[in-house]
Please model this.
Amino acid sequence: MRFAPAPSRSDDEIEQLLASMQEIVAALAIRHRQLGEAQRLSHLGSWEWDKATRRVTWSEELRRIFGSGGRPLTTLDDYLGVVHPDDRARVKAVVESALANPTPFEYQARIVRPDGDVRTLSHHNEVVADAAGAAVGWRGAVQDVTEVQDTTAALRASEERYRMLFEATPQPMYVFDLETLRFLAVNGAAVEHYGYSREEFMSMELVDLFPEADRDAVRRSAALAASTPGTRRYAEWHQRRKDGRAIEVELSSHSIDFGSRPARLVLALDVTEKRRLEELLRQAQKMDAVGRLAGGVAHDFNNILGVIIGYGEIVKRRMPAADPLQGKVAEILKAAERAATLTRQLLAFSRKQVLQPRVLDLNLVVANMEKMLRRLIGENIELKTMLRERLGSVRADPGQIDQVLMNLVVNARDAMPGAGTLLIETTEVDLDASYLTFHPGAHPGPHVLLAVSDTGHGMDEETVSRIFEPFFTTKLVGKGTGLGLSTVYGIIEQSGGHVDVYSEKGVGTTFKVYLPRIEATVTRAGMEAAPPPPRAGSETVLLVEDEPALRGMIGETLAHGGYRVLEAATPRQALDIAGSHQGPIHAVLTDVVMPEMSGRELADLLKPLRPEALVVYMSGYTDDAIGHHGLLDPGTRFLQKPFTSDALLWKLHEALAAA
Model:
């Protein structure tokens, strides 16, 4: 056979062929570089192992991953030698199993590089088998996933921390879906606070926590939050627990992604108790403001009443007994006395009256007043007493405590216009921190309790909140002044005690008076019979009063009683008179509240000038100049304004006789 000769190629064709081959080689080189760059960027290395030749081919990236310095690992033992000791047995078992039964397989394992750095590698392997199914080679890809693993672990740890924080937060927290408003997650505090189980929460919507009247507003608020994601919002809402109890909450919320859904994370702060205490504070501040106003009015009004009563008595005394105007003057004095009673009640409420306390047994107070109280309430109301035996003592003004009990009984009587039962109780209690939490004005420790209960019509919450305000009354016009309970409040507060009231509509009301219990013995002092009219005086009295009309009336009354009177309009004038008067000054009768200085300060300045002169203070108001919180200092001689002529002369006679 003859073969045709190979066609000859021109030099140009050969050059073109060489050029094409060079282009192919260059393209392959570029492709190889691109592949190597892709492997480097993805931390992905490749390799092949031929079982027969034991030849191993590694990519450049794989060499970098293993840090082997360019030396491939040619045997399984070489490879297992760099696997982390804790992973070595597992990896050996996986590889041997795959080689015995050629199948693709994957695993992750850690290696220790020559520099000691530990890396986590993800292996994707394929075993090459011959026609008989025996392994003849092994190839695969290795990716360094150390950073991914670290990031995943950090993310998992972060999620766990946030989950723990979510659960451990003592305040209720929940997550709801912004589109459906269904709950997606709740913490344990929310379960405990709202009373719903976690399963119940997961079947509820956000609006289920709110009163029906507020649900449309809640939906609008959620829609606004959905339109402005990421915005933190603060709002105060009314919500309801599972048991139906209404609560006030401050809600702080922020947009989050929860399971790839737009959601809102909410922190709920229950401010129900905070708002209640704030309301109590506002009420206390209101009462204090009203008290200050009432005290100031009563102080000025007392001076006016003193003039009316004093001159009224002078006119009455100088008129013939048969004068037809005697009755008119008597009515003027009665009206003035009623007005004086009102001012005393205002001063009691404002805690500006002057008290003269004694050690008292409240059981004796109740027993001594029981007959009078039975007459006061009438036959249609049953009066019961439950008095604890061996009751502890208290320190209070006996006249004021009588007034407290009488006012409470009258209030109870008026609450039972048809018939009913009135119960007066005494016992001992210890006021602890839990009681003080709900009654900020109270003081801790042992107390004696005086309680007055009725079975009357009761009061609603609005009425109870205002019951101690002066001039507030639920009675018809002309049936009450609205000062009885305010007087009770002021007397007990000024005595260091506390008043509480509980009432239900249609059931009745209980007033509880707490007075601090003391360790002291009750005496019978102050039970003597009324003294006879005072004798005429002859001593010299320095009268200090800044109100001209009142000063003139007192001076005339003293002169009528036989005393020589030196009048001073100011404390400075009194000091001048004391220094210049020729002769003794037996007594100083001074107002307590005056311009320039108080009566106590004047008395201290007069003492070196007139050591023989005793001091009698007169006031209808206390600024703590002669005592503390209205309680007189021991040995203080005091005359309560407004006073009658006989009361003035008796107080002065009593002081001079004792001196």
